[in-house]
């Protein structure tokens, strides 16, 4: 007869009997220091964790190069135990193209924000996809230029307040938001395009599966994952309200899901968990 085990119950009707303590360092192996200086509630550290965990799980640690754009996430560029190249604002796909063509044996990943990729360098990523460059581009989308003050980007949704749209983005004055993943999904050179988010634990897991899939698809062509991230500072909301704000506003316009997946039509793609070299 199997012994039934019960989960421990922590009483919450009074103060704890002992102080909280660190029981384990959960920092991913490829992140040198777990502490960061980004704002409380920022979703970019979670997104970065999904990317580096995917790289490690596929056995790509010593055979990959990350190309960083300019944004709050750039703080991680010197905190990773992997090769990193710094690009000018918006130019990461072009730098990644040069790296990949020089060293086609490497897995090359760009990390950019929506301001960097869509407002500053839209042509770079579109042309990389059109050429079918064998790189993977990751876009962290919070709808604001976080590092440079929190003003509107090309992905900011209608009605969203930013530092220069205090009354909310207006279509007549500012135009409509660009849905980059939707544009890339229609390009023949792109083999995998998806949009995830990090507002809940379940969505973090889904996003990680998207990144794993995108890295595997790189050998056949261009792959892209957009990750919706929280920015309570730029959104003028409380930290605890940021995940709900993301779901109610950004995810209603930039809808998460897999927009294009041609990997099933291709041969030789390793199963999940199998090392990739």
Structural class: alpha/beta
Globular, elongated, flat, extended or rod-shaped: what is the shape? globular
Largest sheet: 7 strands, mixed
Q: Strands across the major sheet, in which order? A: 2-1-3-4-8-7-9
Order of helices and strands: HEEHEHHEEEHHEHEHHE
Mean pLDDT: 87
Distinct helical segment count: 9
Please estimate the helix content: 25-40%
**β-strand number:** 9
Q: What is the CA–CA distance across the termini?
A: 45 Å
Given as residue ranges, the uncertain stretches (5+ residues, pLDDT < 50) are 269-277
Q: Please compute the radius of gyration using only Cα atoms.
A: 20 Å
Describe what this molecule looks like in 3D.
- Helices cover 30% and strands 17% of the residues.
- It is an alpha/beta fold and 277 residues long.
- The strands form 2 sheets. A 7-stranded mixed sheet has the order 2-1-3-4-8-7-9, sandwiched between helices.
- α1 crosses α7 (201-217) and α3 (114-120) packs across α4 (122-130).
- Mean pLDDT is 87; it is low at 269-277.
